[in-house]
Amino acid sequence: MSLRTCVLGFVASSVLSFWPGSVAGQVTLARQGATADTVSVAANAYRAAFTLTNRGADSATYYVSCVGMGAAACVTAERDSIHLAPSQQFALTVDYRATRAGRGLVVVRARDPRSGARASAALLLTVVGS
After folding, report:
1. Rounded to two decimals, what is the model's pTM?
2. Contact 51, 92 (CB under 8 A)
3. Cα atoms in the Cβ-side hemisphere of radius 13 Å centred on 21
4. What's the rounded Cα separation, in Å, for the pair 114 and 107?
5. Of 3.30.1490.20, 2.60.40.10, 3.40.50.720, 3.90.550.10, which CATH number belongs to 3-128?
6. How far apart are CA 108 and CA 111, in angstroms?
7. What is the pLDDT of residues 92-113, one digit of tens each?
8. Domain residues of the chain, as ranges?
């Protein structure tokens, strides 16, 4: 395992496990499918699917953001905000691209500023090609 892989793995676990002010258990964000993927610089345009679930007792509006790190860039999340009733789910898609060969990370976050509920999920990428 390379140093770059270790650093991206550390960044991923840090981003996903520590988010100050979060209210545990009220919202979840999960990747649909594998949490790691191999993609090509040549194809360049990709889409990943996530499921956002409101586990709280009240309706909430979640604001969604996406960021790419390393060899990945987040292009856009399908929606900037999503309103969910209690126990309601939403299938969210995120467009991203491979910027160069190497390792990359796409991180998606959802937050409800009213309650403080937050969640994040990531997709770890191996980008091949030149």
Report:
1. 0.80
2. yes
3. 6
4. 22
5. 2.60.40.10
6. 10
7. 999 999 999 999 999 999 999 9
8. 3-128
